[in-house]
Design goal:
Strand 22, helix 17 and strand 23 form a beta-alpha-beta unit. The model has no long low-confidence stretch (mean pLDDT 94). The protein folds into three domains: 242 residues, Glutamine Phosphoribosylpyrophosphate, subunit 1, domain 1; 203 residues, Glucose-6-phosphate isomerase like protein, domain 1 (Rossmann fold, 3-Layer(aba) Sandwich); 147 residues, Glucose-6-phosphate isomerase like protein, domain 1 (Rossmann fold), CATH 3.40.50. The chain contains 19 helices and 26 strands. 34% of the residues lie in helices and 23% in strands. The protein binds 6-O-phosphono-alpha-D-glucopyranose. The site of 6-O-phosphono-alpha-D-glucopyranose has 17 residues, from helix 9.
């Protein structure tokens, strides 16, 4: 995580860096800093806390510089304080560096450098990089060769931006494992961890790949790899707009993104459904369709909310495709030496397309010969580029740290893949048509559920002082229970657990008393009677029940404390609907507690370290 930005060009870089850091703040917000040229000397300003703290120190043209770098931190090594904030200086204060990633061999390198007389100011792993560069410069290497030789010595991950006093109008950037994109402007160039920070300035970008190093001046960009071989880079034209990454009248990004879901889901379906033929078309899978169809096993992997989407996918695939499906935490999968062959298909789900564990799991699965697919939201992201094929969710940028529209869009894409394959298997034309007709009505049903916002806000008021929550669901709605609990934990800091409803008897029931709210997802499906029994078990122990039930279920309100009603739909689509009240419930409880829902403590949107 951490966000990095850099600018060199004809304009004053300070407001551009500050604006860029604000756009990247979702990646980390423990501290922020900028490095720049104060006439012909290097200087920095850094502060603990948010970018606005930093902004207040540089406002009003107090500092002007044509080249600079900026960083917003998510602490890994060293507590979040001013000293550990980036940039970091070299010994003679003539090199400044910002880093996103983790240097795994930093302790060994630090020891060597200390023995050679280097003094460390911070507790960060990043500081070793700037001293190593300095060491090579002192040996007579050029600035760029010093960076290159340093990168050969370090192990781990990095997105780097470095400026050097003796080469004033240049930024050197490098990448391995952490994302880095370069925006090409007229008489100016910008680098950033992602396109959000540069979209206001240019739509033409170059994605840096692992082991590539770029020398950036306002005149041009020179890319070489770590072996000093020049690399021709493709310039990509972006279609994103600045409006897409602003709050658009909402008080928070999270609320905006919750309310964007009808459009996000429509976008995920657009051009992919042919109702008359009961068929789905996914361009990104065409080249690998036969191999996918013949896969004997499907593994879905991801982290956090994306992992929850994968769990729903497992129900979809096993019900409609009868292909054995497993869901794996990417962090466990990558290190377990998984048993894989070319008969397996592995689907990696990631909103950002940059999560370090998911990306590493993908590389591992590729090494072992499995077919690798990506379901990503960020176009051009590392996971999207590394996969053999894939499907974009097209949910638009998601800035709120707690994932909402990305999750429901992932469910749409999983359903599309299911129906696409099911039609090649046993699903009939009529059944295909019926499924797709219902599928197309989902965005309107979502709209209807969002109209319950005020009702849910009122319910939330009663629970702002709760300290624990239990979420229960069965079948397709078990992963929804996990996701509901995660949303609450992430933004309201209330302890919450999601459980398969029947498992409650094997532990969580011991926790239930009059202070324990229990959210039960209870659509009228084949498990309805069973879930009603689970509700009775909670009521018998004085637990407070909030039920997510379907419209027209008049029985349930006689036994629960609160009912939130969603329209009915086919089982496979139900999680897209039932998760919405849970997103809003978590949102309003957190807002009631006065918390920052977009940037909850300790979390980051894009976890690019393991
Ligand atoms: C972080 C975010 C979560 C997200 C997870 C996986 O923990 O805070 O919202 O679900 O990473 O991210 P990905 O981008 O791979 O979906």
């Amino acid at each position: 995580m951490c966000g990095i930005v850099g600018y060199t060009g004809k304009r004053d870089c300070i407001p551009i860096l500050i604006e860029g850091l604000k756009r990247l703040e979702y990646r980390g917000y423990d501290s922020a800093g900028i490095g720049y040229f104060d006439k012909d000397k290097l200087a920095y300003i850094k502060r603990k806390g948010r970018v606005t703290e930093l902004e207040s120190l540089v406002e009003g043209g107090k500092i002007v510089s044509k080249t600079g770098i900026g960083h917003t931190r998510w602490a890994t090594h060293g507590i979040p304080n001013e000293i550990n904030a980036h940039p970091h200086f070299s010994k003679n204060r003539d090199i400044l560096l910002i880093h996103n990633g983790i240097i795994e061999n930093y302790q060994a390198l630090k020891k060597i450098l200390i023995n050679e007389g280097y003094k460390f100011e911070s507790e960060t792993d990043s500081e070793v990089i700037v001293h190593l560069i300095d060491r090579f410069i002192k040996k007579g290497y050029s600035f760029s060769d010093s960076v290159r030789h340093t990168l050969i010595e370090i192990e781990g991950t990095y997105g780097l931006a470095i400026i050097y006093e003796k080469e004033p109008d240049k930024i050197i950037a490098a990448k391995k494992g952490s994302p880095l994109v370069i925006g090409i402007g007229g008489d100016e160039n910008i680098i950033a961890s992602d396109i959000n920070a540069l979209i206001a300035h240019t739509k033409q970008v170059i994605y840096l790949e692992d082991y590539e190093i770029a020398e950036i001046t306002k005149e041009g960009i020179l890319v070489r790899n770590i072996h000093d071989i020049p690399v021709e880079k493709e310039v990509i034209e972006l279609s994103m707009t600045v409006e897409e990454i602003s709050k658009g009248g909402y008080s928070t990004f999270m609320l905006k993104e919750i309310f964007e879901q009808p459009d996000a889901l429509t976008n995920a379906m657009r051009g992919r459904i042919i109702v008359d033929e009961g068929r789905v078309k996914l361009g990104g899978l065409e080249g690998i369709m036969d191999r996918l169809y013949h896969s004997e096993r499907i593994i879905i992997s991801g982290c956090g909310t994306s992992w929850h989407a994968g769990l729903v996918g497992e129900y979809m695939f096993e019900q409609y495709l009868r292909i054995p499906t497993e869901v794996e935490y990417a962090s466990e999968f990558r290190y377990r030496n998984p048993v894989l062959s070319e008969k397996d298909a592995v689907i990696f789900i990631s909103q950002s397309g940059e999560t370090a564990d998911t990306l590493a799991a993908l590389k591992e699965a590729k090494t072992k010969g499995a077919l690798c697919l990506g379901i990503c939201n960020a176009v051009g992201s590392s996971i999207a580029r590394e996969s053999h094929g894939g499907v974009y969710t097209h949910a638009g940028p998601e800035i709120g740290v707690a994932s909402t529209k990305a999750f429901t869009s992932q469910l749409v894409v999983l359903a599309l893949i299911t129906i696409l394959l099911a039609r090649r298997k046993e699903l009939s034309l009529t059944d295909g048509r019926n499924l797709l007709t219902e599928f197309q009505s989902i965005p309107d049903k979502v709209r209807k559920i969002l109209e319950l916002n005020n009702q849910i806000e009122k319910i939330a008021e009663d629970f702002k002082n709760s300290t624990n929550f239990l979420y229960l669901g069965r079948g397709y709605n078990f992963p929804v229970a996990l996701e509901g609990a995660l949303k609450l934990k992430e933004i309201s800091y209330i302890h919450a657990e999601g459980y398969p409803a029947a498992e409650m008897k094997h532990g969580p029931i011991a926790l239930i008393d009059e202070n324990m709210p229990v959210v039960v997802i209870a659509p009228k499906d084949s498990t309805y009677e069973k879930i009603i029994s689970n509700i009775q078990e909670v009521k018998a122990r004085n637990g407070k029940i909030i039920a997510i039930a379907i419209e027209g279920d008049d029985e349930i309100e006689k036994i629960v404390d609160y009912v939130i009603r969603v329209p009915d739909t086919i089982r496979i689509f139900m999680p897209i609907l039932t998760v919405l009240p849970l997103q809003l419930l978590a949102y309003h409880i957190a807002v009631n507690k006065g918390l920052n829902v977009d940037q909850p403590r300790n979390l980051a949107k894009s976890v690019t370290v393991e």
